[in-house]
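Side project, low priority. Logging it here so it doesn't get lost.
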Amino acid sequence: MASLSRKLAQWVVGLRYEDLPPEVVDRAKGVTLHGLASALLGAQTADGQQAVKLVTEEEAGVANGATIMVDGTRVTRGGAAFANAEMAMAGGKWDTFRMLTHPGTSIIPGAFVGAETAGASGRDFITGLAAGYEVMERMAAEFIPTVMARGFHAGVVFGIFGPAVAAAKISRFTEDQVNSTIALCASLAAGTPKRESSEAIRRSHTTAMPRPPPMQ
């Protein structure tokens, strides 16, 4: 019997733009604009600017990477995804699923980096975005009621899967590559809510999620 990661990988690889209902395409466009608006707002905040400064000081001048939104500096793919996610989170305009995950703050930055580096079309971007949302929130839907009770924050536990799947789909990964990506994400997923500064640490956990295997 195929494993869960294998079944998800098969679905992700087989998904086509033509398979998406019109309302899903419209929603994908809507959450993208929503996420971009939050990143634009976040670029004006101290948290967003701090993230950009951190990444640009460490990574500016990278030849093959991706672009930090608003700022325009080219850095590593992981660095761009992190900075863009931090700005999106700092902007405060988050989408939500059952009030415990904020998928757009990680999936959208990861998808944009994947699309930029792959030279993807708009249709490829939307298909990858839909795949990332579907996988992340299908998984979260099954476990959100119990994850918090077991001492973990649902948004951080599942947030790594969305951008990884989106980037993998946009980058045209094979079934085996997507399967391995999901497996790596499972080994990296974490997020205990037991900390002194809960909001600051939770935000840093969430914005680190767009740096999964496909972003490295």
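Brief comment: The radius of gyration is 16 Å.
Revisit when time allows.
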